[in-house]
Design goal:
By secondary structure, this protein is mainly alpha-helical. Helix content is about 45%, strand content about 5%. A three-stranded antiparallel sheet has the order 2-3-4. It has a two-stranded parallel sheet with strand order 1-7. The chain has a two-stranded antiparallel ribbon with strand order 5-6. About 60% of the residues are buried.
């Protein structure tokens, strides 16, 4: 579980001592350091290791088992399924929905590349697993369940999901206790997923997603109030305007309904020049979606294009407007806590925006000291992906199971305790801490495809389980990477 960069980090404990076994598809035998197809496959495979609920017969990550099969029963609702957020056993709907939006964006923007890599079906499965849970969480027009599990009690235990006995407390937003950010973000995710499954000719599922998305947008917009239920783990710092714009932009893309276009035009002054894209701050995601419409001729959306250009200038070295500096090794460094979430999301934005610029025959983005061509912007985005895969001062891949050197002691309960398939007895909360969290042995279950928080500002990484700031993974980091690496497949 990652808290925002302002949050006080809660260090959670764990670990284990059996031999690591990497789960991967048998055809992944490439030894090339920059095999983007392999990186794409493994980054999607990761989501199977984060699954909650009854696992399907085609589950490829074999060290995982069924878990949390009674989620929702406290209030007679079905909240089984979805994804565990990070290295813990809590399901947070707000960041989960962001992950589904990014996976869907990859499936839409890079459909051909993902297909070429043989991963479109697996990507659809990853999207479906999360989106169906989001659908179940929206139990009435003015109700959305936003969290399953108590974060504080969960963090006091080091248990496999299969052994979990901490309270599965339920949190929800209603018209009397609103949370616009969460409702709007789920609306965006389901609108994006509806496009994915419409393209797949699954019109029934697509229609379900779209109906729920429209309902959630109305809920978010009609009952405005900032979301604080997940604090101190996921607190809203950017407000809810970015999520409302994000949802409206995706609904316009999914429906072409003029009312959603009218919403983003009438509220264009909400848009801000920013330098990060995260589960909390969606402005640049909206700006890129709407800048595409501007480049196709809708001049009412000029503000979004200007702000998208500003984002590029805030990242590109030597442009005169840099807000986010790079480490000595060249990695964008936004915040010390889970920094790779920001590097991966920035990369996906730069790749997708580059596509839009090229499609409109734009010659690039003018910053105060330099003009950057689409090719230059893409090259910089590629450097971030390559850094993650091993082109860095430590020659270390920050993706588990990719390359010859990668983190072995990631901050993740299920990975750090022997699989229930190998150690069938219950591992208690206290035993998890005393035996598995503290061991210096590698995690017994390699969580293949997981991208950790990453190095510090000086490109250093200790690979310590107790260092959740740098060694913990998140679903949204991987989702952003899926989109970014898809841009490089076949290139």
């Amino acid at each position: 579980m990652r808290m925002a960069w302002q949050w006080p980090l809660i260090l959670v404990l764990y670990f284990s001592a059996f031999r690591c076994v990497i789960t991967e598809s048998p055809h992944l035998q490439s030894t090339s350091l920059y095999n983007y197809e392999e990186a794409l496959e493994k980054s999607i495979l990761f989501f199977e290791g984060q699954r909650s609920g009854k696992l399907p017969s085609k589950q490829r990550v074999k060290w995982r088992g069924d878990s949390a099969l009674t989620d929702g029963q406290l209030e007679n609702v079905n909240l089984v399924g979805g994804y565990y957020d990070a290295g813990d056993n809590v399901k947070f709907v707000w960041p989960m929905s962001f992950s589904i939006s990014l996976l869907s964006w990859a499936a839409i923007e890079y459909r051909q590349s993902v297909t070429t890599a043989g991963q479109l079906g697996q990507l659809h499965s990853a999207i479906s697993w999360g989106a169906k849970f989001l659908l179940r969480a929206h139990t009435s027009p003015t109700t959305l369940y936003t969290q399953v599990g108590d974060g504080n009690s969960d963090h006091q235990c080091w248990e496999r999901p299969e052994d979990m006995d901490t309270p599965r407390t339920l949190y929800k937003i209603t018209k009397n206790s609103p949370g616009t950010e969460a409702a709007a973000d789920v609306a965006a995710a389901l609108a994006a997923a509806s496009i994915v499954f419409k393209d797949r000719n699954n019109t029934n599922l697509s229609s379900q997603f779209l109906r729920a998305s429209k309902s959630l947008f109305e809920f978010a917009n009609n009952y405005r109030g900032s979301y604080q239920a997940s604090c101190p783990f996921y607190c809203s710092y950017s407000g809810y305007q970015d999520e409302l714009l994000w949802a409206a932009a995706w609904l316009y893309k999914a429906t072409k309904d003029a009312k959603y276009l009218k919403f983003v035009v009438e509220n264009k002054e909400w848009s801000k020049s920013i330098s990060e894209f995260s589960w909390d701050n969606k402005f640049i995601g909206t700006q890129v979606l709407l800048a595409k419409e501007y480049l196709r001729g809708n001049k009412d959306l000029a503000k979004y294009k200007t702000d998208a250009d500003s984002f590029v200038c805030s990242l590109m070295p030597n442009g005169g407007n840099v807000q986010i500096k790079t480490t000595p090794g060249g990695l964008l460094f936004t915040h010390d806590a889970a920094n790779l979430q920001y590097a991966t999301s920035a990369s996906l934005v730069l790749f997708i925006y580059t596509n839009a610029l090229k499609s409109s025959r734009s010659d690039g983005v003018q910053c105060s000291s330099a003009k950057f061509s689409p090719a230059q912007i893409k090259s910089f985005a590629k450097s971030q992906v390559d850094y993650i895969l091993g082109k860095n001062p430590k020659n270390l891949s920050y993706m588990v199971g990719y390359g010859s050197a990668y983190p072995k002691h990631i901050h993740h309960r299920g990975s750090s305790i022997p699989s229930i398939k190998n150690l069938a007895r219950k591992v208690t909360c206290k035993e998890g801490f005393s035996t598995w969290y503290t061991t210096t042995d590698p995690n017994p279950n390699a969580h293949v495809g997981a991208i950790v928080g990453g190095p510090d500002a000086n490109d250093q990484f200790a690979d310590q389980r107790s260092d959740s700031t740098h060694s913990e993974l998140t679903t949204y980091t991987n989702a952003a990477f899926v989109c970014a690496v898809s841009a490089l497949v076949g290139k």
